[in-house]
Each structure stands twice: as structure tokens, then as C-alpha cells.
Specification:
It contains 5 helices and 10 strands, in the order αββαββαββαβββαβ. By secondary structure, it is α+β, with helices and mostly antiparallel strands. The chain folds into 2 domains: 94 residues, Gyrase A, domain 2, CATH 3.30.1360.120; 63 residues, Alpha-Beta Plaits, CATH 3.30.70. The strands form 2 sheets. The chain has a 6-stranded mixed beta sheet with strand order 7-8-9-6-1-10. The chain has a 4-stranded antiparallel beta sheet with strand order 3-4-2-5, with helices on one face. The radius of gyration is 17 Å and the shape is globular. It starts with 11 loop residues before the first helix and ends with a strand. The mean pLDDT is 93. It comes from Rhizobium deserti.
């Protein structure tokens, strides 16, 4: 007897209440991102950082000294793992099933996030391409600035519902909408 297992996203029920088109301020949830933790071995940090910067179809998110998240919305886990494994001096672990990736964008994104993070997100301070681990909605998250008014947030799967609910509440006065990215 074959089992038919369907992937059900942890935020499926949270997004049910959001219908209609996206407003200028919008929270997108990525259904199936590929996420790996990457650690550089002692003394190899510089070489690993350079090699990660050259990886194709992978966005690199800084987490701390010698630690990154490798994120892809286009490449499969096998492709990402192969690229990362080819880098000398790294240890890696796939985190795709344990993390949730959300992107929040719009003209009011900094005002919304200012209610959730204790970091200065002014463009002169938190530059495009910059990322860091921080508290977001009382949960340890990785926040990355991916565009002029766009940020990505990666949180543990077990806290994704709480973070989603708090972000949508903080964005209510700015007419924040939400949907799955592929919806």
C-alpha cells in the first residue's frame, strides 16, 4: 500500500484569512526554500566566505563569525549541497524542513519591522545585501535586506506561526497583506 504524503506548510492555516491581491506592503511566505547552515573550519573563514560569494543560485546570509545560511528559492537541495560540499573547510547541515522563509516588502516595511526588531534598519546602517541574526517578534531570526524596501526573515519552523501573527498585527495599520509566494 503506497502512502500519499502531501507537504503541508506550517503557515497554511494562518494565511487562510488573507484573500485578494497584494497591497504595496506585503508579506510573502516561500513554500519550499532550500536552506543550509554552513560553518567554516578554523582558519578557513576567508576562503569559505569567498567561495560562498561565488556560489550560483544561492543567497548567503551571515549568522555570526564563520557561520552562514545558504538559501535558494530556485535550486534544489542536491544542487546546493553539491556546491557547498565542494568548498574546502566547511561543515554543512540542511535546515530546509526546520526553517521558514518570509519576505516582507513595501514603502512602510521599516516602520513595520521597527516594531519587531531592535536594530536600526536605515539604508545607511543596514545596507542592501546585509544580514544578521537578531530577535524578531521575540524569536531568534535571520533578517536580510534583499532590496531597497525588501527584507527576508528566516525563523525556526516551530515559531513561524507566532512571528507571522505578530508581523501581520504590526503591519495592520499599513494595510499589510500576506500570501504564499507561489499563490
Amino acid at each position: 500500500m503506497a502512502l500519499n504524503l502531501l507537504h503541508r506548510h506550517v503557515l497554511e492555516d494562518h494565511i487562510l484569512g488573507f484573500h485578494g491581491g497584494a497591497n504595496p506592503n506585503h508579506l510573502s511566505v516561500v513554500r519550499r526554500p532550500v536552506i543550509f547552515s554552513v560553518l567554516a573550519h578554523a582558519g578557513r573563514e576567508g576562503q569559505v566566505r569567498e567561495a560562498l560569494a561565488k556560489a550560483e543560485d544561492i543567497a548567503i546570509r551571515a549568522c555570526g563569525p564563520s557561520e552562514w545560511l545558504a538559501v535558494s528559492q530556485t535550486a534544489g537541495a542536491e544542487h546546493v549541497a553539491a556546491q557547498l560540499s565542494a568548498i574546502p573547510g566547511v561543515s554543512l547541515a540542511e535546515q530546509s524542513d526546520g526553517k521558514v522563509l518570509m519576505a516582507i516588502a513595501g514603502p512602510s516595511v521599516r516602520r513595520i519591522l521597527a516594531k519587531c526588531v531592535a536594530v536600526d534598519l536605515h539604508p545607511d546602517v543596514f545596507a542592501e545585501g546585509q544580514s544578521a541574526n537578531m530577535m524578531c517578534c521575540h524569536v531568534v531570526a535571520n533578517l536580510a535586506r534583499t532590496g531597497a524596501d525588501t527584507f527576508e526573515i528566516i525563523v525556526p519552523r516551530s515559531f513561524a506561526g507566532s512571528v507571522f501573527e505578530e508581523l501581520t498585527e504590526m503591519g495592520r495599520e499599513h494595510a499589510l497583506t500576506a500570501s504564499f509566494l507561489d499563490a
